[in-house]
Design a protein that fits this description.
The chain has one domain: Dehydroquinate synthase-like, alpha domain (Up-down Bundle). It is mainly alpha-helical. The N and C termini lie far apart (about 45 Å). It has a 3-stranded antiparallel beta sheet with strand order 1-2-3. The protein contains 8 helices and 3 strands; from the N terminus they run H-H-H-H-H-H-H-H-E-E-E. Keywords: Lyase, NAD. GO terms for molecular function: 3-dehydroquinate synthase activity. It comes from human gut metagenome.
């Protein structure tokens, strides 16, 4: 785009639930690759720093997209929380909003990362803390089988592997191809 216009005043017109859903996507950017931004969100509510939040997220997305225009590498990281999130969204019959599902997806994948030894429990503690701070869900009632049946139809599945975006620490995530059936563990 040649121009991006961001009007912070529009955010104050959103219903609270929709606003919180947007915060899930904002939190994703901090967890993904910007620990100082994540900490800013922990210390100061997003509502009190709209310009900083928007400019940071827009710049981060711009840099990722410019580095991977065709979504074959680093840009895939923008899907943090989305593989599980989309499955939760579909299982709920879309009664849960996208941002709520992304929040759940980030928490679920971080729990799995701790279980597999990819990240420390402290990372999960921070993720759960910020989701609670922004009144976002971090649990799902859907079974692993229900979620996997949906997740296996995701665009990120190739050759029997799902590309998962896995937190290693706040501000650091990696792309890990995981055999789909191994996710049942």
């Amino acid at each position: 785009p040649s121009l991006v216009v961001c009007d912070c005043d529009v955010l104050d017109t959103l219903p609270e639930r929709e606003y919180r859903c947007g915060c899930a996507e904002v939190i994703k950017y901090g967890l993904l690759n910007n620990a100082p931004f994540f900490n800013d969100l922990m210390e100061t509510p997003a509502k009190e720093q709209y310009e900083h939040v928007i400019s940071t997220c827009v710049e981060m997305k711009k840099q990722v997209v410019l580095s991977d225009e065709f979504d074959r590498g680093a840009r895939q990281k923008l899907n943090l929380g989305h593989t599980i999130g989309h499955a939760v969204e579909q299982c709920s019959g879309f009664t849960l909003l996208h941002g709520e599902c992304v929040a759940i997806g980030m928490a679920v994948i971080t729990r799995a990362a701790v279980k597999k030894g990819f990240c420390a429990k402290e990372t999960l503690d921070e993720v759960e803390k910020i989701l609670k701070l922004y009144d976002l869900p971090d649990q799902t009632t859907y079974s692993t089988d229900e979620l996997l049946n949906v997740a296996l139809s995701d665009k990120k599945v190739a050759n029997g592997n799902i590309s998962l975006i896995v937190p290693e620490a706040v501000g650091k995530c990696s792309i890990r191809p995981v055999p789909a059936e191994a996710l049942r563990e």
